[in-house]
Specification:
The chain has 13 helices and 44 strands. It is an alpha+beta fold. The chain has an eight-stranded mixed beta sheet with strand order 37-38-40-39-41-42-43-44, with helices on both faces. Strands 1, 2, 3, 4 and 5 form a five-stranded mixed beta sheet that branches. Strands 14, 15, 16, 19 and 20 form a five-stranded antiparallel beta sheet that branches. Keywords: Signal.
């Protein structure tokens, strides 16, 4: 979803957790628990080799100090195209927001720094407005250094965008990078063409291609301007559709598809960007629910003819261009087209020479169709596809024209994503929580028929995987409640070949001084009001005593696309709150992912309904526990979680004792088209649903302490969501607290201000709940 799950760079690492707690706590925790509650405890840490002697308590200051508390957690791990190296982005030890590129030989040898971002570009300067927006959409705002990179297909060089320019770094002479651009303008979305002959990028809203042999540039699109751009992903595509680019190379370097985005009909929302020393009015083209969208058309540029032809996307112009893919041989182009109501997804087969198209596959659902990146072309010309037609997402193999169908997986469990294909051995690899809804693991299945599903990675935690191009090996990042994220190289039977970034919990690890006082993590399931099992987790302070009464901070997100209860390393924010003397509780309500379409689509036209019922069921469970102080339970969340917090404050004003809402949606009519209309329809056609979901009319119901936080330059959940809430609360003479952040966007990630967010929230709960047991 668009809305940021967490407000800080630390807590955004929502995929990781730990357990380091004395054995007696487990038995103490079980005292007085309802018999229907199931607990899961992770195994002891496989990489903890000694017992820490320090019992330092984790505090707020340490969360934002260097080096990064979780250790050198790798990002964007990739194989080089020749499979000789593994590369990844690593937080710098002196500044965890600055990323450098590291590498390690696949066959063994020490990891080494390949690109020192600060040495390459000592002063990155001011980002362009386009790049700021792009990083905000990618949740990389605040990050510095090398935030992305691209290999050439021969494995000989890396493309490194830094400081608004583009550098070509040869592995033979990495200390002498070739600077490809040096312009006043900011180049974005740089890519190396599949055959390595060109570098492409966006400059001044136009698509530019550089011939690497001679350094000559050529504009392959018309010249763009403010309202009409070329080769760029529109706001909705970046924010809601997980599509960050607006151009796509053919695999043979002979053609390139680019998008024309016409925003002339998109309403201009005048948004104040209030900074510390100045304020400016920003005219942002923001497509609010029910209003006009950008019109997106596609063109195919042919390098031989130096001509572009338009792609036939059909007669309906009010559509979303969701995905664009090429066949392996470059002979066929595929475009995924979504209708405005998102109840239909068409796969178009396009002739790359003429632009003519035909629909070869259609998915439909009365609620909505979710987008994926699962389209996978095969060497045979067939392709893989996933469908939720049965209520669970599963893999299909289809012929080039979509006509022949072979179902490859089936069952009451979902395929999360296709990770890779080994055509030689006839296997498709995919991620799933097939055996445990709290875990993500890698599995394989036959590529030609419905057959046995094989577990590849081990159980007990959460995996993310990047497979080699030939799917003969994979990079696996693993964590569990006892193991911080670590990156290894594995064969396709799941056997560890070598560690890339072991991130071992040893005396030199940043977490080591705090392990003895670390909160334990427990998992359980309760039956919700709909009869669905609801997963929950609980952090217990290391000093937990079941004979005492403890305060609770409930973290809530609750929105589509985000699962907050997972068996992984966990959030350092949760750990800090537990160290401060709070039990931290989470529960995944209906509408959250990885539980099948009926569980996820229960919120259709009902935002703020089933989610609230399930969160209140979690609260009711908490209040049955003898160690919970029923008069000291608070709830907080950011973005959709901020909306949920305000919904709880208005729909159940006496349920919790304090409410902290960050960057909340207060009226869905103010939010964007693709996200909001997927779940709510339009304000014109579903006015009752919008009225029912708004928190504004019911703010008069607020009774308990309420804190609202918001960035004053937020371009996602715009600041007027909160100012509307301020106005309603003041009109009803209801006291509340507010903290606003000049110049800050939706995600407040700069270290000092991110720290201030957490300081404000913790001070609020300390005053309204009080830390520690009684």
């Amino acid at each position: 979803m668009a809305l940021t799950t967490h407000p800080t760079p630390i807590s955004r690492q929502v995929q990781m957790r730990i357990l380091a707690v004395a054995p007696f706590l487990m038995s103490a925790f079980l005292i007085g628990l309802a018999p229907s509650i199931a607990f899961a405890q992770s195994a002891a840490s496989p990489n903890q080799t000694a017992t820490p002697t320090s019992s330092a308590s984790l505090n707020l200051d340490r969360l934002f100090e260097d080096p990064a508390l979780n250790g050198p957690v790798p990002r964007a791990a990739k194989f080089s195209p020749d499979a000789k190296l593994v590369t990844w982005l690593r937080p710098n030890d002196q500044d965890f927001l600055r990323l450098d590129l590291w590498a390690a030989p696949v066959e063994g040898g020490k990891a080494f720094q390949l690109i020192d971002s600060k040495a390459l570009v000592p002063d990155e300067g001011e980002l362009s407005d386009v790049e700021k927006a792009r990083r905000e959409r990618q949740r990389m705002a605040g990050s510095r250094g090398l935030i992305s990179y691209d290999w050439d297909q021969k494995g000989q060089a890396i493309l490194a965008p830094l400081g608004g320019d583009i550098y070509y770094v040869s592995l033979d002479t990495p200390q002498i990078p070739r600077r490809l651009t040096q312009t006043p303008q900011f180049e974005t979305d740089a890519q190396i063409s599949p055959q390595g002959g060109y570098v492409s990028f966006i400059r001044d809203a136009s698509l530019i291609v550089m011939n690497l042999a001679n350094g000559q540039e050529k504009a392959v699109s018309p010249h763009g301007h403010e309202a009409i751009t070329y080769g760029m992903a529109e706001f909705i595509a970046q924010e809601e559709m997980d599509r960050d680019t607006g151009y796509w190379w053919a695999p043979n370097d002979l053609k390139i598809v680019f998008a024309k985005v016409d925003e002339t009909k998109v309403a201009i929302v005048q948004r104040l960007e209030i900074g510390a020393s100045s304020t400016q009015i920003v005219d942002q083209r923001y497509p609010r629910a029910g209003a006009a969208n950008a019109q997106v058309t596609l063109f195919i540029y042919d390098f031989k003819t130096d001509q572009s032809v338009p792609i036939d996307l059909g007669t309906d112009k009010d559509i979303y261009v969701a995905r664009v893919d090429w066949s392996k041989d470059g002979g066929t182009l595929y475009v995924q087209r979504q209708n405005r109501s998102q109840t239909r997804l068409d796969l178009l087969m396009v002739n790359p020479s003429t632009g003519q198209s035909k629909v070869i596959l259609t998915e439909s659902d009365p609620n909505w169709i979710s987008l994926t990146h699962d389209f996978t072309p095969l060497m045979s010309g067939d392709f893989l596809w996933t469908s939720e037609r049965t209520g669970w997402r599963h893999i299909e193999r289809r012929s080039r024209d979509g006509s022949r169908v072979e179902v490859l997986t089936a069952g009451k469990w979902p395929v999360n994503q296709i990770s890779g294909v080994d055509e030689a051995s006839g296997r498709v690899f995919f991620m799933s929580n097939k055996d445990d809804s709290l875990e993500q693991r890698l599995y394989s299945a036959p590529l030609h028929k419905l057959g046995k599903v094989t577990e590849i990675t081990s159980a007990g935690g959460a995996w993310s995987v990047s497979m080699a191009k030939n799917a003969k090996a994979f990079l696996g990042t693993y964590s569990d409640p006892a193991t911080p994220p670590r990156l290894g190289l594995f064969d396709t039977n799941g056997r560890l070949i070598r560690w890339i970034e072991e991130n071992k919990l040893s005396p030199s690890h940043p977490w080591w001084p705090y392990l003895a006082s670390r909160a334990g993590m427990r998992f359980g399931t309760l039956i919700g009001p709909s009869g669905d099992p609801l997963n929950w987790s609980m952090h217990l302070p290391a000093q937990f005593d079941a004979s005492k009464k403890w305060p609770v901070i409930v973290y809530v997100y609750g929105g589509p696309g985000v699962q907050v209860v997972q068996r992984n390393w966990g959030s350092n924010t949760d750990q800090m709150q537990a160290a401060r003397g709070y039990i931290v509780f989470r529960i995944d309500n209906r509408g959250t992912p990885n539980r099948g379409s009926s569980f996820e689509r229960a919120i259709s036209r009902k935002l703020g309904g089933p989610e609230i019922e399930d969160q209140l069921a979690g609260l009711a469970f908490l209040k049955t526990q003898p160690f919970i102080d029923q008069d000291r339970i608070g709830v907080w969340g950011w973005s959709y979680g901020g909306y949920m917090t305000l919904r709880l404050a208005t729909e159940a004003p006496d349920a919790y004792n304090a409410y902290a809402s960050g960057a909340p949606v207060t009226d869905w009519a103010l939010y964007d088209t693709h996200y909001t209309e997927r779940y709510m329809g339009t304000p014109q056609g579903d006015a009752e649903a919008y009225a029912r979901s708004s928190v504004l009319p019911n703010l008069k119901n607020v009774k308990r302490p309420l804190l609202i936080l918001h960035g004053m330059a937020d371009d996602n959940v715009t600041f007027d969501h909160s100012t509307a809430a301020f106005d309603r609360l003041q009109a009803a003479a209801i006291p509340f607290e507010a903290m606003v952040y000049p110049g800050q966007k939706h995600g407040i990630r700069e270290k000092a201000r991110a720290k201030h967010v957490q300081l404000t929230i913790m001070n609020f709960f300390d005053r309204t709940l009080g830390p520690g047991p009684r």
